[in-house]
Amino acid sequence: MASNSRLHDFLGGSPLQVLVKLLFVSLVVGALLMWLEIEPMDLVHGARRFFDRISSLGFGAVHTVIGYVVTGAVIVVPIWLVLRLFNSGRR
After folding, report:
1. What does the pLDDT profile of the chain (91 residues) look like in tens digits?
2. How far is residue 5 CA from its own chain's centroid?
3. CA-CA distances (angstroms) from residue 81 to 44, 67, 78, 85?
4. Inter-residue contact 48 to 40 (CB < 8 Å)
5. pTM score > 0.85 for this model?
6. How far is CA 66 from the centre of its chain?
7. How far apart, in whole angstroms, are the C-alpha atoms of residue 73 and residue 65?
8. Is-contact 54 64, C-beta < 8 A?
9. Three-class HEC string of 18-80
10. What pLDDT is attached to residue 62?
């Protein structure tokens, strides 16, 4: 039972519940990316270019990374906030 509880705690729910949540979120994100006409390989190539740019910039990379963090936070923080609000309503 202890290992099952640890798995439940690690996953944040039962494996089936987590699988359903991940499938739903994947569907929504996939639909959004398709609507924006973004292919999965575009993301892979973008990440590779990102790291190439960081390595070639040297100290200017810190400024670029901060810009990426702020840009990403514009998307991530509101999503995180909404998810936390939904999760607090379940308790």
Report:
1. 556 777 777 777 888 888 888 888 888 888 888 888 888 888 888 888 887 877 777 767 777 778 888 888 888 888 888 888 788 766 5
2. 25
3. 27, 21, 5, 6
4. no
5. no
6. 18
7. 12
8. yes
9. HHHHHHHHHHHHHHHHHHCCCCHHHHHHHHHHHHHHHHHHCCHHHHHHHHHHHHHHHHHHHHH
10. 74
Residue where the block lists tokens 């359903």 = 20
Q: What is the pLDDT of residue 26?
A: 85
Q: Hunting for tokens 């070639």 — which residue is that?
A: 56
In single-letter form, the type of residue at position 39 comes to E
Amino acid (1-letter code) at residue 6? R
